[in-house]
Amino acid sequence: MSATMTTELPRGSVTDELGFPSDPDNLYLQTVNTMLEAAEAINLKHRTRIILAQPKNEIMVHFPVLMDDGHHKLFKGYRIQHNNALGPYKGGFRYHEDVHLDDVKSLAFLMTMKCALVRIPFGGGKGGVKVNPRELSPGELQRVTRRYCSAIMDQIGPDVDIPAPDVGTNAQIMAWFADTYMMSSKHQHHDALRVVTGKPVEFGGSAGREKATGQGVADVLAEMLPGIGIPLEGMKVSLLGFGNVNGWGGRILQDMGAKIIAVGDHTGFLRNDNGIDCHKLFDHNMKTGGIKGYAEADVISEEDFYRTKVDVFIPGALEQMIKAKQADWLDCKVMAEAANAPCDPSGDRRCQERGIEVIPAILANAGGVTVSYFEWVQNKNAVTWSAEQVDRELNRHMVVAAQRTLNTRARLNCSLRTAAFATALEHIGSVYKVRGIFP
Ligand code: NAD
User: Fold this and answer.
1) pLDDT of residue 11
2) CB of 249 sitting under 6 A from ligand 1
3) What CATH number should be reported for the domain holding residue 156?
């Protein structure tokens, strides 16, 4: 079949061709369908569609770890390497009891799109271990991390696949991971510390990495909201999740003049129409592990949280939390996806039907991987950037990515999500065009 004929295949044929299940609630299928919709809009070659519809490598490992009580427990880990046409696979790994293969595949896919959209020379990857890190002692956490690293060590590397923190993992875990990698006889040189990003600053980490994703969300909003008719000064915001991403994002937006009037996390929901001071809430969260018990706001129900009238709603908790019910409750003009895939397919459809402007995750939360890239560049060149340089470069990347997305939307007359995917796909498609498909 000629290339011209293959690009004319109707939508859906790729999922049929690859034998995907037709489960409408499957996160991976949701991601593939989003890609296919954007691929259709730009007439992307069939070969690029099928390459991207499945990851290059799906690595699954099982490893035993000695627990504090003397018994050994077997853990399951994943590393998905989705695509490396633009550069080494890049993406975090998470520790969570609900880690599943299809979710990790979906997150790896989103990383491919994200890196292509912000034009950093990386592909997409993602990993995870099925474990609740809160149930582990520090010693157990360290042993799980070292065994997970050694289980996937031969498939990753500073120029092959570079993990980073995600939900349930942090800078300390990245330090143990890098140390384990560097202890192996093949990698006993200092440059090997580029194998992960998100490291502590004293061990090769970058200034500004911790706040990077929240800062990126704020940079994108500052660039896009005036065009949507929402001034930053005084705009009302609600935050779902108050961890790394929204804890930083909330404080940064507040400092830029926004009023955060509702916040929710795994411990409950709060509201104060005069504004919740995110700096004070952050301190409370650090001390207690959640927003529950914060005195300067009223406790509200989940439904009242979603029904709170705001200009911008920022989901920054876990995936798939906003289903049709929550989407029906929402009373916002804009949703900025700080979390990856925060809506399930039904929630996504309802947001579209209700005319909510959704700034997609591959744009809104790309600040984290962008500063991870800066960390990798600094390590490779043995230099240290100032916090100001990191902020400046991050802002430049986020603003250009936002403008690219807006330009594509104007050209294709589509949603911001389709526009962001189409922008990323055009870049990947152009790289495949010049590289060709081996052999
Ligand atoms: P985190 O673990 O620091 O915070 C997660 C937050 O979600 C916490 O406030 C937690 O209370 C809340 N939460 C968990 N379960 C909840 C529930 N049932 N109801 C309400 N809230 C709940 O994680 P993070 O690093 O802030 O990541 C959040 C999201 O952003 C994830 O989807 C992650 O993949 C994505 N993301 C993170 C980064 C990063 O740099 N950290 C980068 C890009 C994307």
Assistant:
1) 53
2) no
3) 3.40.50.10860
- Residue 232 vs residues 333, 336, 355, 364, 366: alpha-carbon distances, Å: 13, 14, 21, 16, 20
Q: Taking the model in full, what pTM does it have?
A: 0.95
Q: What is the distance between the alpha carbons of residues 380 and 302, in angstroms, rounded to a whole number?
A: 46
In Å, what is the CA distance from 81 to each residue of 106, 109, 178, 369?
A: 11, 9, 19, 16
Ligand 1 pocket mutation, candidates 265, 300, 306, 363, criterion most atoms within 8 A of CB: 265
Query: 145 and 71 in one domain?
Result: yes
Q: pLDDT tens digits for 108-152? A: 999 999 999 999 999 999 999 999 999 999 999 999 999 999 999
Catalytically annotated residues: 126
Q: Are residues 222 and 352 in the same domain?
A: yes
Residue nearest to atom 33 of ligand 1 (CA): 339
CB-based contact 158:192 (threshold 8 Å) = yes
CA–centroid distance, 241 to ligand 1, in Å, is 6
Q: Per the domain annotation, does 89 fall within a domain?
A: yes
pLDDT band for position 12 (cuts 50, 70, 90): low
Q: How far is residue 350's CA from residue 137's CA, in Å, rounded to a whole number?
A: 42
Both 175 and 97 in a single domain? yes
Query: Residue 97's domain spans which residues?
Result: 55-192
Residue 205: CB within 6 Å of ligand 1?
Answer: no
Domain count, the chain: 3
Q: Is the CB of 316 under 6 A from ligand 1?
A: yes
Taking the C-alpha atoms of residue 311 and residue 259, their distance in angstroms, rounded to an integer, is: 10
Kindly state if the Cβ of 317 falls inside 6 Å of ligand 1.
yes
Residue 75: inside a domain, yes or no?
yes
Question: How far is the C-alpha of 341 from the C-alpha of 324, rounded, in Å?
Answer: 14
> What is the token pair recorded at 210?
């911790």
Between the CA of 383 and the centroid of ligand 1 the distance, in Å, is 31
385 belongs to a structural domain: no
Whether 135 maps to a domain, the answer reads: yes
Q: What DSSP assignment string belongs to 326-353?
A: HHHH-EEEEEE--SSS-B-HHHHHHHHH
Identify whether residues 14 and 109 lie together within a single domain. Answer: no
Answer whether 133 contacts ligand 1 (Cβ < 6 A): no
